[in-house]
UniProtKB/TrEMBL annotation:
It holds the Pfam family Ribosomal_L27. This is Large ribosomal subunit protein bL27m. Coiled coil: none annotated. Residues 33-54 are annotated as: Disordered. It comes from Paralvinella palmiformis. Belongs to the bacterial ribosomal protein bL27 family.
Amino acid sequence: MALPLQSFLGSLKYNLLSNRVVLQSTVRFASKKASGANRNKQEKTTPKRRGPKKYVGDYVEKGMILYKQLGLKYYPGENVGCGRDLTLFALEAGRIVMSREKLSPYPSSPLYDYINNGKTIYKLFYNVIPDPQPKIFKLVSRT
């Protein structure tokens, strides 16, 4: 019986000067870290890596990606194709040239009526200029 009474007296302290009983409690810390904040973290999404892949003056081969974009920031020009996600790619091997040209939309375009009313819209175009072919053939007359 001494042990339970001693443990009870350990938590109670008797103050002799003021004749009061003071209740003393102990605080026990967690032995494992709480992980409650994990659900507040945002999930990491992979970046889309949009932007220019090749620059003006660079040499490109057929099929190389020139520019990845969201929306038509740059339009496909000569020897440049446009993918489903509006990615511009080279249709021929050559050097990249950018130009600012007057837009001439198709009749089904929403900009068609705007252009027909006398307004002009200038857009940036990616063009691929193929290198000149070497003259390796010799022309011979048949006479």
